[in-house]
Design a protein that fits this description.
The protein has one helix at 30-34; strands spanning 15-18, 48-52, 59-61, 64-67, 76-77, 102-105, 111-112, 123-131, 140-145, 155-161, 168-172, 181-184, 195-201, 205-210, 213-214, 219-220, 233-234, 245-254. The protein is mainly β.
Length: 256
């Protein structure tokens, strides 16, 4: 309180100040703020004066946190806090990142989309990956592989582990049916550790980034990628073979 002399021992999230009195019920009300225990996105609320999410959007610049005001410019600063004060919450939010992931057993569990993605000649794939055990041969992370044999094996674009190491690679195939082209990580990924992986085919080059760092293996392609005839698959390749053993979170794809 006031000068910081009376402290709270616990967790706080989504502190907000409104310049009006909110009614008990309705679209913008006390009940909507509670939202059955799931904090809502407040950005559309009228009369929202300040909104401190108190999450990973805040920036730690030693020795203090910069506490971001998501409703305006009224940022704040921490007192006697370190980077260890940011913890994983079990609150589910209606927008933004979730602290949860899906765990795949490396046998037959996998996911696929309902629809086949549109053809594109440039693509970016992003995923958080945590390998938790030995995976099968060429374990698929996520992407599209049509039915097909050598030399392209039907691959359109995907993230996949190598067969004999824990290195990961980003693979694409050109429309002429030639062998697939891959960019491989410099070193093996560490088991039981979350790793951010991004593959980019920019119309000229095939590149891979591990935790934001560009890998040295950069390959080229002719600018045309194989068109998908299959759904996007997660934790496996193609029709469900080559399973991945581990956890995946926040998989995303761009057509640029």
């Amino acid at each position: 309180l006031a000068n910081g002399s009376i402290a709270t021992n616990g967790f706080v999230s989504n502190a907000a100040i409104f310049s009006t009195n909110l009614p008990a019920t309705g679209t913008e009300s006390v009940a909507s703020l509670y939202n059955n225990g799931t904090p809502p996105d407040l950005s559309s609320y009228s009369n929202l004066e300040r909104w401190y999410k108190l999450n990973a959007e805040d920036v730690f610049t030693y020795p203090n946190w910069i506490i971001r005001d998501s409703a305006g410019i009224n940022n704040g600063a921490s007192v006697n806090m370190t980077s260890a004060n940011l913890v994983q919450s079990n609150l589910q939010h209606t927008s933004g990142y979730s602290p949860y992931a899906l765990d795949f057993g490396g046998i037959s569990s996998n996911l696929k989309t309902y629809t086949i993605p549109a053809a594109t000649n440039t693509v970016t794939l992003s995923a958080w990956v945590k390998r938790t055990g030995a995976s099968g041969d060429l374990a698929g992370v996520f992407g599209v592989r049509n039915s097909g044999v050598a030399p392209g094996y039907g691959i359109c674009w995907d993230l996949c582990f190598l067969s004999t190491t824990n290195k990961i690679e980003f693979r694409v195939s050109e429309t002429d049916g030639s062998a697939y082209i891959q960019s491989t990580s410099n070193v093996a990924l560490t088991d039981n550790t979350w790793t951010h992986v991004v593959g980019v085919a920019d119309g000229t080059n095939v590149k891979l980034y591990i935790n934001g760092i560009s890998q040295t293996d950069v390959e080229s392609y002719n600018g045309t990628l194989r068109a998908p005839t299959s759904n996007i698959r997660f934790a496996a390749q193609g029709p469900g073979g080559n399973p991945f053993n581990g956890q995946l979170s926040n998989c995303a794809r761009w057509n640029v």
